[in-house]
Amino acid sequence: MANKLSHEEFIKQAIVKLRTGNFKGIHSVYSGFNEAFKKYFDREDPVKVTNKLAKEGKLVIRPTKGGVVLYLPEEAPQMVRADHALKKMGLL
Q1: DSSP per residue over 4-71, as a string?
Q2: Is domain 7-88 in CATH 1.20.1260, yes or no?
Q3: Contact 16, 27 (CB under 8 A)
Q4: pLDDT in tens, 18-71
Q5: The dihedral of CA 70, 73, 77, 80: what is its sign?
Q6: How would you classify the pairing of strands 26-27 and 60-64?
Q7: Minimal CA–CA distance to 26: which of 56, 78, 57, 66?
Q8: Residue 85's Cα: distance from chain center in Å?
Q9: What is the pTM of this model?
Q10: Are the beta carbons of 2 and 41 closer than 8 angstroms?
Q11: Domain locations in the chain as residue ranges
């Protein structure tokens, strides 16, 4: 691992290579992403990093049962009405 990927490169590669079927995103837990991230980045917290990149608009996070689903920004599903309401309230 001489030429380590950046956090953003690692996450984008994970989304593309770990997704299954026609799904555009990956589940952070069930895909093995969280464990792989911690192993590759010497126990860094994937939640902090993914939240930071989501705030910067470099990926999209959607909450789901048992964790979150990570998407590339250009492939994320459109926000639903509840998401718009939460965003207006400053909670999303």
Answers
A1: PPPHHHHHHHHHHHH--TT-SSEETTTTSHHHHHHHHTTT--HHHHHHHHHHTTSSEEEEETTEEEEE
A2: no
A3: no
A4: 999 999 999 999 999 999 999 999 999 999 999 999 999 999 999 899 999 999
A5: positive
A6: unpaired
A7: 66
A8: 22
A9: 0.82
A10: no
A11: 7-88
